[in-house]
């Protein structure tokens, strides 16, 4: 099948698959970000059990293959009477893992903040949570815009996990798998998806760079 | 000296009082049975060789360093261990650091209003008006919208002083405030501190600036090896140091 044939026959499906990938990416990253921030706050909290739990979370989800996690969610959870839709399973897998990386990047950002600033905040009478909210997190976020941009791209690529389950509507990779089992799309079928992934990544990268230039902290 | 207790209604309850404070860093005994008090309006200057424990002493007062034994009282109230109560008491004691420690992501004005807004719950407008006056007082009001990295060290340290003042502290601790500054900027910071002292601010200053100590201090405390060796008026201390160690110290810095 040539590229023209593919587009004429599957064009609409490519568009809808692109939107599905965007949707998964957006929600997965949003969830990953929220979990990442919470886990990071736990990792620097003065409460030891919280620190241990958060370290444990990062170690587990940084080191588990996405496909394995998805397998657990799809095949093991039903034994516990938890039956989630395929979309939800993919979303969870594609957010729990990036959340661990998000926390790692934020920790790296936090390490650039001098202890002196924390001491200054403490001596002003700010409480732990106020220091986190006003001093630590804003600086950590602003100095990790670029790593977080990369994480957003990586999250998008992780959503290709959706191709491993019969999700409807399909994502970009799922669609390629579908086309290649019903027709002979070959590499060309993947090329179209690849271009869509690339185009999205380029746009994300540009936006990330722009935000970074705007919020970067002068030191 | 008889110990004052809370509730005597007396005006001479010290703003800061340390009683038999001891602290170790591992096997190192950094503070040895330190007792001192700073009354309202006093400027107490702590001098001594590096490693004598003077910075550590300064930092224990608002509990940036914990102590092993003894008591630290702020207007007769004992410093609590942790939590909200500690934060509340800390807010009453200002602190100015050697390395300024301004919040790098905030503008100068936002550095000054953070405490008043978050801790004293003032409105942004009210906090900002007062902050501008304070910045004017320390001579950096024209820099209000810049970020710390755009200011010189001397300007940053003056902002740090304004940030402390914005909390209306009962006393301000200065932990070697001019040690990280280029020589030409030391004067502008010392001028602001001298002005504060004249206006009656209670201050505890750890410094190597002997001229400042001589001119401004109500009392000089000389520390060495974690102990207070000598405590006297600046005139007496600098012209007739009693202890051998103070004499040696003063001789060693006289040469340059």
Brief write-up:
With 219 residues, chain A is mostly helical. Chain A is built from nine helices and no strands. Chain B contains nine helices and ten strands.
Description:
The complex is a heterodimer of chains A (219) and B (256). Chain A has helices at 3-44, 48-62, 66-76, 86-111, 115-123, 128-142, 145-158, 172-182, 186-215. Chain A has 219 residues and is an all-alpha fold. Chain A has one domain (3-215): MetI-like (MetI-like fold), CATH 1.10.3720.10. Chain A is flat. The longest helix of chain B has 16 residues, at 183-198. The radius of gyration of chain B is 18 Å and the shape is globular. In chain B, α4 packs across α5 (153-165) and α5 runs parallel beside α6 (183-198). The interface between A and B is medium-sized, with 22 and 31 residues.
What labels would you give this structure?
heterodimer, A: 219 residues, mainly alpha, 0% strand, B: 256 residues, alpha/beta, 6-stranded mixed beta sheet, 4-stranded antiparallel beta sheet, 37% helix, globular
For the secondary structure, the number of strands of chain B is 10
Q: What's the gyration radius of chain A in Å?
A: 20 Å
Q: Evaluate the radius of gyration of chain B.
A: 18 Å
Bin the helical content of chain B: 25-40%
Q: Specify the biggest β-sheet of chain B.
A: 6 strands, mixed
What name goes with the CATH superfamily of chain A?
A: MetI-like
Through-space gap between termini of chain B = 38 Å
Cα end-to-end separation of chain A: 56 Å
Query: Which structural class matches the secondary elements of chain A?
Result: mainly alpha
Oligomer: heterodimer
Biggest beta sheet summary of chain A: none
What's the average pLDDT of chain A? 92
Q: Which stretches of chain A of 5+ consecutive residues score pLDDT under 50?
A: none
How many alpha or pi helices of chain B? 9
Strand content of chain B: 15-25%
Biggest interface reads: A-B, 22 and 31 residues
Strands of the widest sheet of chain B, in order across it, are 6-7-8-3-9-10
By DSSP (H or I, 4+ residues per run), the number of helices of chain A equals 9
Q: Kindly identify the CATH topology of chain A.
A: MetI-like fold
């Amino acid at each position: 099948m040539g590229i023209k044939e593919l587009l004429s026959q599957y064009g609409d499906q490519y568009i809808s698959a692109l939107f599905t990938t965007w949707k998964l990416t957006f929600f997965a990253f949003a969830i990953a970000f929220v979990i990442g921030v919470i886990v990071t706050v736990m990792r620097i909290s003065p409460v030891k059990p919280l620190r241990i739990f958060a370290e444990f979370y990062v170690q587990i989800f940084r080191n588990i293959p996405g496909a394995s996690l998805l397998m657990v969610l799809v095949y093991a959870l039903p034994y516990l009477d938890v039956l989630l839709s395929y979309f939800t399973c993919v979303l969870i897998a594609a957010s729990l893992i990036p959340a661990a990386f998000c926390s790692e990047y934020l920790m790296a950002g936090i390490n650039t903040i001098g202890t002196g600033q924390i001491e200054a905040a403490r001596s002003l009478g700010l409480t732990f949570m106020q220091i986190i909210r006003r001093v630590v997190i804003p600086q950590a976020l602003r100095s990790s815009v670029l790593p977080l941009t990369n994480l957003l791209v990586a999250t998008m690529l992780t959503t290709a996990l959706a191709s491993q389950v019969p999700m409807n509507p399909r994502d970009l990779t799922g669609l390629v798998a579908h086309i290649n089992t019903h027709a002979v799309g070959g590499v060309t079928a993947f090329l179209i998806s690849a271009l869509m992934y690339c185009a999205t990544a380029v746009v994300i990268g540009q936006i990330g760079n722009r935000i970074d230039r705007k919020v970067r902290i002068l030191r | 000296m008889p110990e004052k207790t809370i509730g005597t209604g007396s005006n001479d309850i010290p703003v800061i009082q340390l009683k038999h404070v001891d602290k170790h860093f591992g096997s190192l005994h950094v503070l040895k049975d330190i007792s001192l008090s700073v009354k309202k309006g006093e400027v107490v200057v702590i001098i001594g060789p590096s490693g004598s424990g003077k910075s550590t002493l300064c930092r224990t007062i608002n509990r940036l360093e914990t102590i092993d034994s003894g008591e630290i009282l702020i207007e007769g109230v004992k410093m609590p261990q942790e939590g909200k109560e500690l934060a509340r008491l800390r807010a009453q004691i200002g602190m100015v650091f050697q390395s300024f420690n301004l919040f790098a992501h905030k503008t100068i004005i936002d550095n000054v209003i953070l405490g008043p807004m978050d801790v004293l719950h003032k409105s942004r407008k009210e906090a900002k008006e007062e902050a501008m006056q304070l910045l004017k007082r320390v001579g950096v009001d024209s820099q209000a919208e810049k970020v710390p990295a755009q200011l010189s060290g001397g300007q940053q340290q003056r902002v740090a002083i304004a940030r402390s003042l914005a909390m209306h502290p009962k006393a301000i601790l200065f932990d070697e405030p001019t040690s990280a500054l280029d020589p030409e900027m030391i004067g502008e910071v010392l001028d602001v501190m001298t002005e504060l002292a004249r206006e009656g601010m209670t201050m505890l200053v750890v410094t190597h600036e002997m001229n400042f100590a001589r001119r401004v201090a109500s009392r000089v405390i000389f520390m060495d090896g974690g102990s207070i060796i000598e405590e006297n008026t600046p005139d007496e201390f600098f012209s007739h140091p009693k202890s051998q160690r103070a004499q040696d110290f003063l001789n060693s810095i006289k040469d340059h």
